[in-house]
C-alpha cells in the first residue's frame, strides 16, 4: 500500500503537479520530489508509456524538499529526489537522505565526476554558468580567456557587469568552485574586485539577460539555458554567449541530478526511473530546458549545440557542498549584495 502525498502543516505549501494521480485515490508507482522548475511531465509520460510505471511529482526548492524528506523520514511518500545543484545532491547524501544505487547503467551513462562515488546520486542534466555579453558594447577579445570570471573584476569592467544575487545556489556554487580552485584568500580577492567594480546584483538570470539586452549592463554571468530560452523566443535577442576560461580551468558547470530516497518503499522502480532519465529518456529530460546531456552518447539539442563546443571544469560536488558555508561567508565579507 503506497502512502499518499500529504502536505505537512509545518512545512511551507508547495506547488503540486502530477500526471493525473495526485488528489485521486489511486497513487502513482513512483513519487518524485523535484526542485526542477522545468517541464517534467513530458519525460515522465514517456517513461510511463515505455515501462507502465506511473509517476507523480511534487515541486519545491532544494532546501524545502530536503527539509521535508528529513521531517518525513521513513514515512516519506517520496521515492526519488531531484535537485538542481551538485552541492545539494552531496548535502542530501551527507544527511543520509539518499540510498546507494548499485547501477552499471549509471556508471556507463554518467561521467565519473557527475555522479557520487558511492552511488547515492547521479547527475542527469548539465548547465554551464558562463559569461554573457552585449555584442554592441563588448568585443569578445576584451574578455580574458584564461580566467574569465576573475577578470570581470578588472577595472576596465567598472560599472559594466551584472551578476546574480548572493542567495542563489548558482552564485554560491560558483564561488565555492573559485575557493576550490584558488583557495579562500584568492577567491575573496576575486569577489571583492567584483564588488569594487560596482557589479549590479540581479534577482534572477532572466532579469540579468534582459538588463544586458536593454543596455543596462555590458556583460554578466548566467546559466546558458536562460539565454537559450530567450533566443528561442526571439532569435534577435541582443545577448551573446562566451565560453569562459577556455584557456584556463574551463567553464563552471553544475548539474541537476537525482537519487533514490532513503525512505522509499519502491527503490527498484525509483532507480529504474533515474537510469531511464540518464539513457533512453536523456533528450526528453534535458532538451525542454536546453540543458546539456550528461550522457556523452546523447547529442545536445540544436540551439545549444549552436553555442559551440567547450571545455568544462570538473564538477566537485563534495567541494561545492562542503565549501558552501565558506562561499556564503566570502560573499558576505566582500559586501556582495
Ligand atoms: Fe535555473
UniProtKB/TrEMBL annotation:
Does the keyword section mention Transport?
yes
| InterPro entries for the chain | Ferric-bd (IPR026045)
Signal peptide (from-to):
1-20
Q: What keywords were assigned to this record?
A: Ion transport, Iron, Iron transport, Signal, Transport
Pfam families from the entry?
Answer: SBP_bac_6
The source's domain of life comes to: Bacteria
The record's family statement is: Belongs to the bacterial solute-binding protein 1 family.
Note the PANTHER family from the entry: IRON-UTILIZATION PERIPLASMIC PROTEIN, THIAMINE-BINDING PERIPLASMIC PROTEIN-RELATED
According to UniProt, the name of this protein is Extracellular solute-binding protein
**Organism whose genome encodes this protein:** Nocardioides deserti
Amino acid at each position: 500500500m503506497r502512502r499518499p502525498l500529504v502536505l505537512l502543516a509545518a512545512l511551507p505549501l508547495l506547488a503540486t503537479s502530477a500526471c493525473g494521480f495526485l488528489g485521486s485515490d489511486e497513487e502513482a508507482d513512483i513519487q518524485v520530489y523535484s526542485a526542477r522548475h522545468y517541464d517534467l511531465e513530458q519525460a515522465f509520460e514517456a517513461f510511463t508509456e515505455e515501462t507502465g510505471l506511473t509517476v507523480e511529482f511534487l515541486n519545491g526548492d532544494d532546501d524545502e524538499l530536503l527539509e521535508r524528506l528529513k521531517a518525513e523520514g521513513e514515512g516519506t511518500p517520496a521515492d526519488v529526489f531531484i535537485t538542481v545543484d551538485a552541492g545539494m545532491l552531496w548535502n542530501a547524501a551527507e544527511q543520509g537522505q539518499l540510498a546507494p544505487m548499485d547501477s552499471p547503467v549509471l556508471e556507463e551513462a554518467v561521467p565519473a565526476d557527475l555522479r557520487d562515488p558511492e552511488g547515492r546520486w547521479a547527475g542527469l542534466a548539465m548547465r554551464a554558468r558562463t559569461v554573457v555579453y552585449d555584442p554592441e558594447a563588448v568585443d569578445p577579445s576584451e574578455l580574458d580567456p584564461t580566467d574569465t570570471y576573475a577578470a570581470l573584476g578588472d577595472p576596465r569592467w567598472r560599472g559594466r557587469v551584472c551578476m546574480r544575487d548572493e542567495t542563489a545556489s548558482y552564485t554560491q556554487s560558483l564561488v565555492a568552485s573559485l575557493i576550490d580552485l584558488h583557495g579562500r584568500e584568492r577567491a575573496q580577492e576575486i569577489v571583492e574586485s567584483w564588488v569594487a567594480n560596482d557589479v549590479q546584483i540581479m534577482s534572477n538570470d532572466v532579469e540579468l539577460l534582459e538588463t544586458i539586452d536593454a543596455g543596462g549592463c555590458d556583460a554578466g554571468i548566467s546559466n546558458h539555458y536562460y539565454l537559450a530560452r530567450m533566443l528561442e523566443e526571439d532569435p534577435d535577442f541582443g545577448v551573446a554567449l562566451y565560453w569562459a576560461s577556455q584557456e584556463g580551468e574551463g567553464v563552471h558547470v553544475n548539474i541537476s541530478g537525482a537519487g533514490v530516497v532513503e525512505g522509499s518503499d519502491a527503490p527498484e522502480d525509483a532507480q529504474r526511473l533515474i537510469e531511464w532519465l540518464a539513457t533512453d529518456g536523456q533528450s526528453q529530460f534535458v532538451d525542454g530546458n536546453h540543458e546539456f546531456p550528461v550522457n556523452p552518447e546523447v547529442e545536445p539539442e540544436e540551439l545549444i549545440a549552436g553555442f559551440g563546443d567547450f571545455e568544462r571544469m570538473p564538477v566537485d560536488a563534495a567541494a561545492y557542498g562542503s565549501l558552501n558555508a565558506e562561499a556564503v561567508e566570502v560573499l558576505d565579507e566582500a559586501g556582495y549584495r
